[in-house]
Known about the structure:
TIM Barrel, 8-stranded parallel sheet, globular
Amino acid sequence: MPYPKIELHVHLEGTVRAATLREIAKRNDYRLPNDLENLHGFRDFRHFIEVFELRVGALQTYHDFRRIVVEYAEEAALHGAVYLEAIFVPGIWRGLDQDEVFGGYCDGAQEARELHGVEVRLTPDLPGVYSPEEAEKVAGFAVKHRDRGVVGLGLVGPADDDAMRPFARAFAVAREGGLGAVPHAGEIAGSDSVWAALDVVQADRIRHGIRAEEDPSLVRELVARGTVLDVCPLSNLRTGAVASLAEHPLPRLVAAGVRCSVSTDDPAMFDSDLTRDYEAATSLGLDPRALYDAGVAGALCDKRTRERLQQIDDAFEWPS
């Protein structure tokens, strides 16, 4: 029996296995490259983003959005997942109906719980190419769907104060509506991006954050705040954010007192799954229960759900 797991950082567009993605693309008359299955063929981080954007474009309808939530919850449950915070790109620039986008993902989250017993919460991501007006529009839709499972607002791309500042108002809208802030930072960009995430958008959690170790004062700040980092070991390896698993900053950050959860990021793109990412983390000497506890601490869920997650922790016979 796999031990229980919490995953706080998984892009739903990056969970769709190749056969399913091709089926969806064909139905939507969307052309995908022939080498989609070349999971380890990323030339660099920019190439990874290009492939990710191709995947995003294939998903176009309410049924697509709902389906990928349910199917990933089924997969994750097989690896012991009990709680997920899943990320999606709203796709305003593609002219998609946002009620259909958010409705599909929210209905999928409810269906995932009913069919597979996995609690799924949602955190739409703002791409850095969005205008401030587009970002605020997404924040408004996120708040509108707060009672249907949306718990936070994310950001990907901006790497310093100046780049993040145009998004500050969108995060203020989200915060005023009761949502958390979960930006990406400290993955490819350095420690300054983590400082910007904390100061400009007032991050509740950091997605990745591994470059924080470059700045001892930042590490101390993360410890003092109790900020959880969503670390994705195999993703970092596949994209070249780290040169090897043995060099990964995760054990050093944990040893310094930083709370770190473990996630897959984009499992279908990296030929990974939740079990393998946890195995990568534990191979570095980390305790699976501590990873679960960090997940509980970082989750943006309601009090009742948090209590249920804690009960699962208390009842499970963790390896000594």
